[in-house]
């Protein structure tokens, strides 16, 4: 897995508007057969997010499979400028890249993990659907279910998760504090409800369970959380805390 971060002079548009435009720009510049294949996937092998900082805008792309790296990375490495609808030409000011291998994830799982408190920063609007309805507040079940499903499909090449493992993880996790607000993400004129902010939770139980949760959360910094992560939703950053 790779994280590619491209920096631009700050762009005066909302991150949600920019996310869909950057995603469209990306699709226009990939091989048509691969784009068709992507549209058929229930879980896309990449995620993206747009983050505004004081004087710059960051476009982060996370390539989650070897094939995604093969298909997308060469285009990104050669990118000097971006042309988006109703915006002047955007010049790439810098590009950085980080790796997260399956071996590193396995090391996270095997390490002696005794840390139990975690804080998730939801950087972009994040949302879930449950029983056909949008969910406006995260639960530990929804968080871990999403991460486990993305991990199973993208890393383990499985379609389903182990419900007993999810139940055990949820049973030993509880939210201890949060500071969240409603946040909407616009897609083709439609507002999708979600939330932003931060949430702290505690994991009890054996160290192997804590290590598994830690691995999923590290993976989540790349995969994103919840729905429409390939459009810019569900971007998260993990703040590890000592008890």
Characterization of the model:
This protein is of the alpha+beta class. It has two domains: 2-99, 2-Layer Sandwich (Alpha-Beta Plaits), CATH 3.30.70; 102-241, Alpha-Beta Plaits. Helices cover 35% and strands 35% of the residues. The chain has helices spanning 15-28, 32-39, 66-77, 102-110, 140-154, 163-171, 207-223, and strands spanning 2-9, 46-52, 56-63, 81-82, 90-91, 94-99, 117-126, 128-130, 133-135, 173-187, 190-203, 236-241. The strands form four sheets. The chain has a four-stranded antiparallel beta sheet. A four-stranded antiparallel beta sheet has the order 10-11-7-12, sandwiched between helices. Strand 8 (128-130) and strand 9 form a beta hairpin. The chain is globular. The two termini are 30 Å apart.
Walk me through the topology:
Elements: E1 2-9, H1 15-28, H2 32-39, E2 46-52, E3 56-63, H3 66-77, E4 81-82, E5 90-91, E6 94-99, H4 102-110, E7 117-126, E8 128-130, E9 133-135, H5 140-154, H6 163-171, E10 173-187, E11 190-203, H7 207-223, E12 236-241
Antiparallel strand pairs: 1-3, 1-6, 2-3, 4-5, 7-11, 7-12, 8-9, 10-11
Strand order of the largest sheet: 2-3-1-6
Largest sheet: 4 strands, antiparallel
Radius of gyration of CA atoms, rounded to a whole number? 18 Å
Termini, distance in Å?
30 Å
Any idea how many domains?
2
Shape: globular
Order of helices and strands: EHHEEHEEEHEEEHHEEHE
């Amino acid at each position: 897995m790779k994280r590619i971060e491209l920096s631009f002079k700050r762009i005066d548009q909302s991150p949600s508007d920019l996310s869909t435009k950057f995603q469209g720009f990306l699709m226009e510049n990939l091989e048509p057969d691969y784009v068709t294949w992507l549209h058929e996937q229930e879980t896309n092998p990449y995620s993206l997010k747009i983050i505004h900082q004081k004087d710059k805008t960051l476009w982060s792309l996370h390539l989650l499979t070897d094939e995604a790296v093969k298909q997308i990375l060469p285009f990104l490495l050669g990118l000097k400028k971006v042309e988006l609808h109703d915006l002047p030409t955007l010049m790439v000011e810098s590009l950085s890249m980080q790796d997260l291998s399956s071996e590193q994830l396995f090391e996270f799982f095997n390490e002696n993990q005794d840390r139990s408190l975690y804080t998730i920063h939801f950087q972009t609007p994040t949302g879930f659907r449950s029983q056909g309805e949008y969910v406006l507040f995260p639960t530990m079940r929804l968080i871990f279910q999403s991460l486990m499903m993305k991990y199973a499909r993208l890393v383990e090449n499985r379609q389903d998760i182990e419900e007993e493992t999810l139940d055990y993880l949820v049973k030993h996790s509880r939210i201890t504090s949060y500071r969240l607000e409603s946040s909407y993400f616009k897609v083709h004129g439609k507002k999708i409800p979600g939330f932003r902010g931060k949430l702290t939770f505690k994991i009890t139980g054996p160290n192997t369970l804590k290590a598994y949760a830690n691995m999923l959360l590290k993976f989540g910094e790349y995969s994103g959380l919840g729905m429409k992560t390939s459009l810019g939703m569900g971007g998260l950053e993990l703040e590890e805390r000592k008890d």
